[in-house]
């Protein structure tokens, strides 16, 4: 535990001291929020209020915001693993490897650090809620924080897996971008994922970000107060094999995925740094 805490603390201190990284992490989420929130909000709100007759208080940005937070968790968690490559270049990783710390502890410490950093950045986005005129229950926001950490830990394992056998930051960024962007667009974070072709629907259901986005929307938005038509239109009725999944089942899936990526990343880390 001392080794895990030490690695976690180091990554957290590096994040807090890097003001440019802290500022730059908000650029893309806010950009997507402006593009999708400002560009599609008028169209979606008109469709929902007129065609589906849901009332004039429908706010499309309220549905997009949890997806933006999830996207921030994904990008921050995955790209935080790039510190492994930097540690290799500066020789810090060799110092860790010759220490009595196990490779599992190194992987868990890195994942905990990335999850903490991504959770902090996700919470900082909550400061935009009053500016956007959104009406989330603060109790729901507090309840979603532990899940944000869990999702950040699961997604950081993906970055750690690639960082374990890639030796250049340029190669890591290229490969990760190829993985991250499709995961964002095929998760329901920015727009509903209903009515997709069969082969694409399979990819969506295998995407862990899909379940993370769905859980965050169900926690942050009062889904029970929405009509079935609105839920189906906005993709809030996620089904697998024709059966609607519950929040508990989605959390179990994220937990299983987290355990899986920890195991795979640890094995890959052992072989790549043996």
Automatic annotation (TrEMBL):
Keywords: Cell membrane, Membrane, Transmembrane, Transmembrane helix, Transport. GO terms for cellular component: ATP-binding cassette (ABC) transporter complex. The keyword Transport applies. It holds the Pfam family ABC2_membrane. One of its GO terms (molecular function) is ABC-type transporter activity. Residues 20-272 form the ABC transmembrane type-2 domain. InterPro entries: ABC2_TM (IPR013525), ABC2_TM_bact-type (IPR047817), ABC_2_transport (IPR000412), Nod_factor_ABC_transporter (IPR051784). It is a multi-pass membrane protein. The chain crosses the membrane at residues 20-40, 60-85, 106-132, 138-162, 174-193, 251-269. This is Transport permease protein. It is found in: Cell membrane; Membrane. It comes from Aquisalibacillus elongatus. Its main location: membrane. Belongs to the ABC-2 integral membrane protein family. It comes from the Bacteria.
């Amino acid at each position: 535990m001392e080794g895990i805490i030490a690695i976690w603390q180091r990554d957290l201190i590096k994040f807090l001291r890097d003001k440019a990284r802290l500022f730059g992490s908000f650029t893309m989420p806010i950009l997507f929020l402006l593009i999708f929130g400002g560009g599609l909000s008028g169209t979606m709100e008109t469709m929902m209020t007129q065609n589906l007759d849901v009332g004039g208080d429908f706010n499309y940005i309220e549905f997009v915001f949890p997806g933006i937070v999830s996207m921030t968790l994904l990008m921050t968690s995955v790209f935080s693993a790039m510190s492994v490559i930097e540690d290799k270049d500066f020789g810090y990783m060799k110092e860790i490897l010759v220490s009595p710390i196990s490779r599992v502890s190194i992987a868990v410490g890195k994942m905990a650090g990335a999850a903490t950093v991504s959770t902090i950045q996700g919470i900082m986005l909550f400061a935009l809620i009053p500016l956007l005129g959104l009406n989330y229950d603060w109790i729901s926001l507090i309840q979603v924080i532990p899940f944000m950490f869990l999702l950040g830990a699961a997604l950081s394992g993906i970055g750690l897996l690639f960082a374990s056998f890639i030796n250049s930051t340029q190669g890591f960024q290229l490969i990760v971008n190829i993985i991250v962007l499709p995961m964002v667009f095929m998760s329901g974070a920015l727009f509903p994922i209903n009515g997709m072709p069969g082969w694409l629907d399979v990819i969506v259901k295998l995407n862990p970000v899909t379940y993370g986005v769905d859980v965050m929307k169900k926690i942050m938005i009062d889904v029970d107060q929405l009509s079935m038509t609105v839920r189906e239109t906005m993709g809030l009725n996620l089904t697998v094999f024709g059966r609607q999944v519950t929040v508990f089942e989605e959390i179990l899936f994220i937990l299983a995925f987290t355990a899986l990526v920890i195991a795979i990343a640890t094995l890959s880390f052992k072989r790549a740094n043996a």
